[in-house]
Task: structure prediction
Amino acid sequence: MKMLKSENRKNTDVLKISNLNVTFHTYAGDVKALNGVDLSVKKSELLGLVGESGCGKSVTSLSIVGLLPPNAEIISGEVLLDGTNLLTMTKEEMRRTRLQDVAIVFQDPLTYLNPVLTIGSQITEIITVDTKIFLPRLLEHRLHEIAQVQNENGKLDAKLLTEQEQLNSALQASKLGKNEIKRLARKYALFILRSVRLPDPEKVFKAYPFELSGGMRQRAMIAMALVRRPKLLLADEISTALDVTVQAQILQLLKELKREIDTSIILITHDLAVVAEVCDRVAVMYAGDIVEVADVEELFKNPLHPYTRGLLASIPRADALVEQTSIGGSVPNLIYPPSGCRFHPRCPKAFAKCAQAKPNLVEVSPGHIVSCFLYGE
Amino acid sequence: MLAGAIVSATSVILALLSGVIVEPSYWNQQNPNVILCWNNPLIDWHIRNVVNCAGPIYPLGTDIYGRSLLQMIILAIPVDLQIAVEIVASAILIGVLLGGFAGYIGGALDEIILRITDIFLAIPGILLAIVMLVVLGRSIPILTISVLVTWWPFYVRLVRSQVLGEKEKPYVERLRAMGAGGFRILFRHVVPNSIYPVVVQATLDIGAVILTVSALMFIGLTPDPKYPELGNLAKQGIQYLFTAPWLIIFPGLTLLVISIGFNLLGDGIRDIFDPRLRR
Result:
């Protein structure tokens, strides 16, 4: 176990999904939602996961956090987070992982907040749910704050000095009274709210979700996800429900946070403009397959897979030099997925082999992986 | 709504102050000199047999033990309210626990809890209470339990149905994604979000429970014939319906006003919580 971990730190893959197959059992038949997904996320990288609706983006993210609906079955595959397979974990281990290592932010911030509790109590709850893990960080944070005051003023007043002493002894004994924990949790929550650039965090702390605007709610949601400093943050269409200016702010925030707290982020979206704006690397999904992975510049300059090309050509362009085209046909019914490459019925360049076998992911140039018979092999 | 709130608030305040207004042991007294008399000059009953006794004015007359009926009613209101609150609060507690688990966990547990609930739901309430009081002895705790036995199933069903709807909401999914445990999600998030209809039902039920308890007392299942309880007071008066009608009119009227008050209050609360029903 230990060896595994140190091994993985070297190649710096925080998350590594390999050959993930997920099927939904429905009355109409088995929906083969994920068809051997391979994906890896490097440390402090912002990976964009794009694709049409129903291509398996959200299913991928839900299988990472182990929250697939009961009718879903993981047929095969591995999801390694820092070398530990999430799929073989017990329920309790999975809960711990969600508590500490993986966070997810959803699309519609209002429905994902509890309407009867204030933002503040919902954030402090995350902190106080398991103080054993969180106590050192709380204490260190407050000590850090006190140290900052000391730096600014040159010395501390009596009140802060006694507090500093108390906190230091608490840090050694790793024990603290319940009320003290609550007070520190509040301070930490305010700090987190400030760090997602919420104006007037004190007010937001006391506010109920309905009192906030859409952008503020989404910031609060991100704050909740960040409280535990996750290794991996899944952002599932977080900007879709917001208007364009707020969307830009949230994306900017995501970019800044990635730098500040050193978290890997998977940004799930169907908006290529968003991807171009913030992502380091992009993975394109189609009908349960990863069809192409590349650095963001490479992908936009040199798209290889016919689906990626079609996707890029379908973006409306202001300069009108390139004509906007759409991909013919529609996403296949995944109860009866097409044989071979799942894109072949819609592919302008399909040939006989495409219907017979599924192409493997081939590295065409460093970091640029594509799954298409037109390249390699 | 307002009328209901005023009546309910008045009865609760009266109940809280009753020990101050009337000596609590007053109900156990007997004054043979003023049995069944009426000396309030404001109402003339036009009944020949009405005895007009000398001495202080009894605003609502006296009963067969020679006690002032007004004081007896004031003593009876807290007794009725206390029993009602105890029954409803216990029913809510059982409902939230069983209904919460049944709805949230679902599956076999849901099935088991619901079938047990169905068994209790099938028992006719008043009948069971009568049997219990006769067999186990007539006392207030047994009365409370006997009514509760058939009262809690409604709350289990209510809470369960609410929890079923609430647990599918996105914020519950978010909590799960954040690693919150089942107990925390259920009791800190789902239950507080499903409690509104329970509050409405509880307010409406206070009136209903008071009526049920009084009905049991009225058919004679009292711990003591002199016991200050509105149904019992009416029961003692029924034999003198034509000679001393106040004995049944005033306790009955009090009962009516209190239960209508709580019903109006419950309706009002429902209107506030459920905008779809608002006219």
Summary: Chain B has a mean pLDDT of 91. The longest helix of chain B spans residues 69-105. Chain B touches chain A at residues 169-171, 173-181, 184, 188-189, 192-193 (CB under 8 Å).
